Amino acid sequence: MVSTCMITKKERRELKIPDTDISCRQDIFQILTVPDTVVKYGYCSDVYVQTSLLDFYSKLDDMETAEKVFNDMPEKNVISWNSILFGFLKAGELCKARGIFDKIPIKDVVSWNSMILGYAKAGDFERANHLFAQMPDRNSASWNSMISGLKEALQLFNEMRKHNVNVQPDEMTFACAISACSQLGDLEFGLWIETYRSKIGVELDDHLATALVDLYAKCGNIEKAYELFHGLKKKDVVAYSALIFGCGINGKAFEAIRLFREMTTAQIRPNSITYSGILTAYNHAGLVEEG
């Protein structure tokens, strides 16, 4: 029986070994014989050995073999799940990573932090924030995952603006950058980005307008947030939640409650951010018992 623990001789030949000194290359080839030894001594069913092997292939960026090893594991622990999750995130395969994340039987803080950071680094702050809100236990690393991803997104946005980078920001770029500013509380830079968007003539689509609703609501400019909200072609849970949360933190409790009732009447399902906003609104209005 051929096990996926083994890497074939053909695969070894096809692996791109970096140009380095001879002794280092010999070390690399010796490492590549480890899977054969695992099979030879019957450790293919050992969860710890298999997890190390899985991590080994992930670090070689060979996710195809890593996935085979993972699928063939008779027993998986949280480290096994996190290893394959991190491997897919490192490879930039967010969809596969999310599929793994959703299947993890018992997620630990590493599972949550890895997935949140993956989304944040990809500029998908909506999903990152949604997961962050769902996270049962947060530590400093959880907050750092969000913050580092958001800061990285803004750094990339600034890189795009340099004259030697021949890439023009589009609606999605601006939406991601403005959303990052909202999450970091850097409202001044967010408003500057909006001015810059208007200056270079990038159109305002629903996705970008929703990011601006969130930004203006958090700035306390509810009037401008409403103006953008009413201009949306399609109002979704993200837009409603942004405005509800903004009304909540700015003491406009009854406006938040009205919006909440409006969205539920429209059969738009609330999410964790919606509930956070409405509860904040109830608190501000002293309506905790009703909430």
UniProtKB/TrEMBL annotation:
UniProt cross-references to InterPro entries, sorted A to Z: PPR_At4g14850-like_plant (IPR046960), PPR_rpt (IPR002885), PROP1-like_PPR_dom (IPR033443), TPR-like_helical_dom_sf (IPR011990)
Origin: domain of life: Eukaryota
Alphabetical GO biological process terms: RNA modification
Domain PROP1-like PPR: 152-234
Segments annotated as PPR repeats: 46-80, 108-142, 236-270
GO MF terms held by the record: RNA binding
PROSITE patterns: PPR (PS51375)
PANTHER family: PENTACOTRIPEPTIDE-REPEAT REGION OF PRORP DOMAIN-CONTAINING PROTEIN (PTHR47926:SF545), PENTATRICOPEPTIDE REPEAT-CONTAINING PROTEIN (PTHR47926)
UniProt-listed NCBIfam families: PPR
Protein name as catalogued: PROP1-like PPR domain-containing protein
Native organism: Coptis chinensis
Origin organism lineage: Eukaryota, Viridiplantae, Streptophyta, Embryophyta, Tracheophyta
